[in-house]
Amino acid sequence: MKNSYRALAVAAAASCAALPQIAFAEGTGGAEILIPKMAEFVPALIAFLIILFVLAKMAWPQILSTMEERERRIADSLDEAEKTRQKALADRKASDDIVTDARRQAAEIVLAARQDAETERSRILAAAHAEAEDILAKAHASAEEERRSIYADAAASIADLSVSVASKIVAKTLDEDGEQRRLIERYIEEAGSLNAD
Amino acid sequence: MEAFAKLSGEIQELVAEFSSAPVVGDLTVGLTQYSFWLLVAAAVLCIAMVVFVKKQSLVPHGFFVNGVEYLVEYVENDVAKGVVGTEWRRHFPFLATIFFFILINNFIGLIPGMKPGTGAIGCTAALALVTFVYFIYFGCKKHGFIGYWKSLAPAGVAFPMNVFVWVIEVFSLLLRPITLAIRLFCNMFAGHIVMGSFSIMAALFAEPLLEHFSAVNALGALPSIAWLAILLVIYAVELIVAFVQAYVFTVLAAVYIQIAEAEGH
User: Fold this and answer.
1) How many other C-beta atoms lie within 10 A of the C-beta of residue B182?
2) Virtual CA dihedral for B164, B170, B174, B175, nearest 10 degrees?
3) What angle do CA B241, B247, B253 make, to 5 degrees?
4) Pairwise CB contact (< 8 Å): B125 & A42
5) Domain count, chain A
6) A144-195 pLDDT, tens per residue?
7) pLDDT for A189
């Protein structure tokens, strides 16, 4: 820029010194129109140089920098927008992958849960069956035991009653040492075993 | 036709009116009508640039700011970057200023009643001389004073011929400011003379009708409509010429700068 001003200073000096004064003299005829007049040349030169100096110093650098700044910002914004778009696409793909994975995992979890539930149900059912069978068996055994006990008690009672009845009938005890009693009990036992069969 | 009889005298009067005449002082020291309008155009340019610089922002608003920016970008891309090349930034202030200076002057001259500053050879000569000194200076700066003048002769030409070519090149170099000045001046001057001629013709043919309304006069005034239509077309063309001449001057200045700074011819 400094060189430009130096060039302009040279131009100003040259304009006054280099051109022969005769060139500005009023000519005659049609050629007169092509001869520069000092009254036009000097004001035009000075006005142009002043404007050039002022604009070169104060206007053009600022105008250019504003336009370049705008250009740079637009380019940056476009780059940023493109990056954001790419990132959004990548994020969307990642989120889609996550959702797909989550769905797959959820399906697997549900499937596993169903299998577990089924297994548990089968196990509980089997356990319940087993327990029921057990309870039933125990109930049968208990009932059998009870029946046997009742039969034994009944046999004892019948024997006692028979002995008692027989004693009363014969008015004396037939068998003091209990031989009759043992016969009766054996008889009842045989009868009971026959009944149990 | 009475109008045609008057035409020659009117045209001569018009041309005389377009000749430089002092409004202050004389033709050596003072101001002519062209210098006056050139100073007006310079003031308009300064005001326009101040307003533009104040209004210019990162987000441009309005016709004025966008319009000026369009022109600035045009000079930057098509002239500075396109012609000068890598050194465009150094020369942009000069090229942009000369473009806008000529453009404003040309447009000011198109407003009826005003004259273009560029319609006088003295004004265009000043611009051409500044351009000439500018590119010679940068040529000398790039190659050195002797190197620049030597570079005018093409390399690889044998001894007697290269001197001959050098003389032709120097002659061509010295003609550049003259052609710059005369091209711009003649285009603006001639355009205004043509527009003035057609407006005179339109007025001359309509004159009898304005003085006395009659069927004959109305019939005689009909060509005025054609002259007015042609005048409007020429006016439109002159609007384009105003822009084109500013562009041509600036592009040639850029070309001369580029040639002066070029490594070899």
Assistant:
1) 17
2) 40
3) 135
4) no
5) 2
6) 998 888 888 888 888 888 877 777 777 555 555 677 777 777 887 887 776 5
7) 80
**In this complex, do A42 and B76 lie within 8 Å of one another by their Cβ atoms?**
no
Q: Which domain holds residue B202?
A: 2-261
Number of domains in chain B: 1
Is B42 part of the contact surface with chain A (CB cutoff 8 Å)?
A: yes
Instruction: Return the closest-CA partner of residue B102 out of B67, B132, B131, B73.
Output: B131
Judge contact between B102 and B184, C-beta under 8 A: yes
Q: Looking at the complex, report in whole angstroms how far the Cα of residue B125 sits from the nearest Cα belonging to chain A.
A: 7
Residue A171 has a pLDDT of 59
Whether residue A101 is contained in a domain is answered as no
Contact B46 A54 (CB under 8 A): yes
Tell whether A110 is covered by a domain.
Answer: no
Asked if pLDDT for residue B237 goes beyond 80, the answer is yes
Does residue A147 belong to any structural domain of this protein?
A: yes
CA distance A87 to chain B (A): 28
Closest residue, chain B, to A74 (C-alpha) = B58
Residue A68 within a domain:
yes
| Domain containing residue A38 | 2-83
